[in-house]
Design brief:
One of its GO terms (molecular function) is metal ion binding. The protein is 73% helix and 0% strand. The chain is an all-alpha fold and 230 residues long. The longest helix has 36 residues, at 118-153. It is globular, with a radius of gyration of 19 Å. The two termini are 27 Å apart. The model has no long low-confidence stretch (mean pLDDT 91).
Length: 230
C-alpha cells in the first residue's frame, strides 16, 4: 500500500501503521472506541481539514515505510494468544500503574488545586477511570476471556451467544473509559503541564499521557481484533 485515503477507517490504519495513533491522538481522532468509521465521516462531522491531516498522515507513513519496522499482524493471531498478550501486557500494566499514578494525581490536586481548579475534575475523572478499568479487567479475566478460550477449543452456538452478550457490556465500558480519557486530555490541554509546574506535576501528566496511549491500544486490540474474530 502506498497511501491512505479518507475511505480508510482509523482502526484499520493503526493496524497497518501503528504510529498513526500519535497523529490521531494529536488531532483527537478516535481510533479505538469509535475507530470503525471512515475518515471522511469523521472529517465532515468534526470540520477537520482533510488535506492537512491526510498529507501529514501519508508523509509520515511513507517515511516510516523506508525504515525497518516489525509490525505484528494481530489479525493473524489466535484468540487465545491475543488474550494472553492483553492480560500480560495491558492488564499487568494497569494493575501496577493505576494505584501508583493515583497517588500523584491526588498529590498535585492537594498541593496545586487551589491555583489550578481543573485538577479537582482531573482527580474525580481519574478515580472514576481507575474503578472502571479495575472492574472491567476482572470481568474480562474471570468471565469473558475464559469463555473465548473455551470457544476456541470447543466452539458452540451457545458459547458464542454468551460471548456476544458479554462483549456488548465490555464495549459499552470501553466507550465509558475512552470518554473519560478524552475529557482528561481536554482539561489538561493535551497533558501539557503549565509553565510553573513542579516536577511531580510534570511526572503526573507524562504518566497520564502514557496511560492514555496504553489504554487506547488495549481497547483497539479488543474491539477491532479480538471481538471481531467472534
Amino acid at each position: 500500500m502506498t497511501e491512505f485515503t479518507i475511505e480508510h477507517k482509523p482502526a484499520d490504519i493503526v493496524k497497518m501503521y501503528p504510529k498513526a495513533s500519535d497523529l490521531f491522538k494529536k488531532k483527537r481522532i478516535d481510533f479505538c472506541c469509535g475507530g470503525d468509521r471512515p475518515l471522511a465521516e469523521i472529517f465532515k462531522e468534526r470540520n477537520i481539514d482533510e488535506e492537512e491531516v491526510m498529507g501529514e498522515l501519508n508523509l509520515s507513513y511513507q517515511n516510516w515505510q523506508k525504515e525497518d519496522h516489525e509490525v505484528i499482524d494481530w489479525d493473524a493471531k489466535a484468540p487465545g494468544e491475543l488474550i494472553d498478550h492483553i492480560v500480560h501486557t495491558h492488564h499487568a500494566y494497569l494493575c501496577e500503574e493505576l494505584p501508583a499514578l493515583g497517588k500523584f494525581v491526588s498529590k498535585i490536586f492537594r498541593v496545586h488545586g487551589k491555583n489550578h481548579p481543573h485538577l479537582k475534575e482531573l482527580h474525580k475523572l481519574y478515580n472514576a477511570f481507575k474503578t472502571e478499568m479495575e472492574e472491567h479487567s476482572v470481568k474480562e479475566e474471570e468471565e469473558v476471556f475464559p469463555l473465548i478460550k473455551e470457544y476456541e477449543e470447543n466452539p458452540s452456538d451457545q458459547l458464542l451467544e454468551q460471548i456476544h452478550l458479554a462483549n456488548g457490556d465490555l464495549e459499552d465500558e470501553h466507550d465509558t473509559c475512552g470518554n473519560i480519557l478524552k475529557r482528561m486530555r481536554e482539561i489538561t490541554e493535551g497533558f501539557q503541564p503549565p509553565i510553573d509546574a513542579c516536577n511531580s506535576y510534570r511526572i503526573t501528566y507524562a504518566r497520564l499521557a502514557e496511560l492514555e496511549s496504553d489504554t487506547f491500544q488495549h481497547i483497539h486490540l479488543e474491539n477491532h481484533v479480538l471481538f471481531k474474530k467472534l
